[in-house]
């Protein structure tokens, strides 16, 4: 199926759940207090903990497991933390180091196995240069088990998307957005210095280091009703999912990034490099401030129309260089919108958006003009004019918070 057909099926991305505790299974926090791990024998006794009998993988090549059993004698499976295209991430107890870990068990399909080996290579490269301030997840080790590449990571908390969802998509306070933005840009700057481009930055791939949160009462302006809102106890975050990371000097595939965070040069087929990550950071920061993905779309023309609505007209020199596939979105050097729209719903979805400044000021005090100025720098259409990660870190939004 063509990418656009697949995407048109739903306006929203498929989203993943956090900590799906199976019925009857204690939640992670309760388990922390359990004494079952105190009964775990020391390393020499590992051989008592055998692997389960070999079973077939499921139709999609995923490893089939039951909770409480072992993934190799060293790792006891406690729960599923997430699932992606590449595989499932399991919460495990490491009997040897006596700590909780997150193990990504990759599907036993050769293209995913190959991609996992590239991810391992990137993770090793990142770790070699890390001075503990890269904000990139740490890989403890990896192994090949029953035709599944397994990558053992430090265990982190929920993703920023999970957190937004849990809060019914109410935005994060701007001071927290500043902290998230700073760390995110530091991790991107670190990667770019190493000539690596993440290409799949999105709130699902940014995890809070800790799962701890506080509940605060929030009074609604319009009524006496008091709701609760959760805030993370710590703002520390780390970047995950280096499965699509590209080396700058490699031949690139033409389409990268999850749709909502995809830069205009990718859609127009102009080629892409480091600035595509910066565009994604811009989209992410808007989402954290407003609670909603900025460009909720699944097709190219609608996506470009949304960009123009929020950021003004696309530069002519980019339109002129658009590749053959993208030329069809334009008539006489301007976007064929709304004439080319597939439905009235699509025209309405674009009209619902507003200029960036207005979108942000609905949620953030208008005195925060430095935030809007930063966002305009991150969301420049022309990739050569976009801020670099290091330039963005010097922006007054981070340097002189008022
Ligand atoms: N170190 C970790 N600690 C806790 N949870 C994690 C960790 N790594 C991954 N997860 C969870 O597992 C999910 C899937 O992980 P990841 O994004 O690495 O998989 P993927 O198959 O590469 O995904 P994608 O389809 O986006 O490429 C994440 O969204 C997150 O919820």
Automatic annotation (TrEMBL):
Keyword list, A-Z: ATP-binding, Kinase, Nucleotide-binding, Serine/threonine-protein kinase, Transferase
GO cellular component: nucleus
A Pfam family annotated for this UniProt entry: Pkinase
Composition bias, Basic and acidic residues: 53-62
GO molecular function, one term: protein serine/threonine/tyrosine kinase activity
SMART domains hit by this protein: S_TKc
EC number, as in UniProt: 2.7.12.1
First-tier enzyme category under EC: transferase
PROSITE patterns named among the record's database cross-references: PROTEIN_KINASE_DOM (PS50011), PROTEIN_KINASE_ST (PS00108)
Domain Protein kinase: 75-398
Catalytic activity as recorded in UniProt: L-tyrosyl-[protein] + ATP = O-phospho-L-tyrosyl-[protein] + ADP + H(+); L-seryl-[protein] + ATP = O-phospho-L-seryl-[protein] + ADP + H(+); L-threonyl-[protein] + ATP = O-phospho-L-threonyl-[protein] + ADP + H(+)
Region: Disordered, residue numbers: 1-62
Family assignment from sequence similarity: Belongs to the protein kinase superfamily. CMGC Ser/Thr protein kinase family. Lammer subfamily.
Protein known as: dual-specificity kinase
Lineage, top ranks: Eukaryota, Viridiplantae, Streptophyta, Embryophyta, Tracheophyta
Gene, per the UniProt record: LOC105164777
């Amino acid at each position: 199926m063509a990418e656009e057909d697949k995407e048109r099926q739903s306006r929203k991305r498929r989203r993943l759940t956090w900590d799906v505790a199976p019925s009857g299974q204690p939640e992670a926090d309760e388990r922390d207090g359990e004494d079952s791990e105190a009964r775990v024998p020391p390393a020499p006794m590992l051989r008592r903990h055998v692997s389960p009998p070999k079973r077939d993988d499921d139709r999609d090549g995923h490893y089939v497991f039951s909770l409480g059993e072992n993934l190799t004698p060293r790792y006891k499976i406690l729960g599923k933390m997430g699932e992606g295209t590449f595989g499932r991430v399991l919460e495990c107890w490491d009997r040897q180091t006596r700590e909780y870990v997150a193990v990504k068990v990759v599907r036993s399909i050769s293209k995913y196995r190959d991609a996992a080996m590239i991810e391992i290579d990137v993770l090793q490269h990142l770790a070699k240069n890390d001075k503990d301030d890269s904000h990139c997840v740490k890989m403890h080790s990896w192994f090949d088990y029953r035709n599944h590449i397994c990558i053992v990571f430090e265990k982190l908390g929920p993703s920023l998307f999970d957190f937004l969802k849990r809060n019914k998509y109410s935005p994060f306070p701007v001071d927290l957005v500043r902290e998230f933005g700073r760390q995110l840009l530091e991790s991107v700057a670190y990667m770019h210095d190493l000539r690596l481009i993440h290409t799949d930055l999105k709130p699902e791939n940014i995890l809070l280091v800790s799962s701890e949160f506080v509940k605060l009462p929030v009074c609604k302006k319009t009524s006496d009703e008091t709701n609760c809102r959760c805030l993370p106890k710590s703002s520390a975050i780390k970047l995950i999912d280096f499965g699509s990371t590209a080396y700058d000097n490699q031949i690139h595939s033409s389409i990268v990034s999850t749709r909502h965070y995809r830069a205009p040069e990718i859609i127009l087929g102009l080629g892409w490099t480091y600035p595509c990550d910066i565009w994604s950071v811009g989209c992410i920061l808007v989402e954290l401030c407003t609670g909603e993905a900025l460009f909720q779309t699944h097709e190219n023309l609608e996506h470009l129309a949304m960009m123009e609505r929020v950021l003004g007209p696309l530069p002519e020199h980019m339109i002129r260089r658009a590749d053959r596939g993208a030329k069809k979105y334009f008539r006489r050097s301007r976007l064929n919108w709304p004439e080319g729209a597939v439905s009235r719903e699509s025209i309405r979805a674009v009209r619902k958006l507003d200029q960036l400044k207005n979108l942000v000021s609905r949620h953030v005090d208008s005195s925060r003009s430095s935030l809007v100025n930063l966002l305009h720098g991150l969301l420049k259409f022309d990739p050569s004019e976009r801020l670099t990660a290091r330039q963005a870190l010097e922006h007054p939004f981070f340097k002189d918070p008022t």
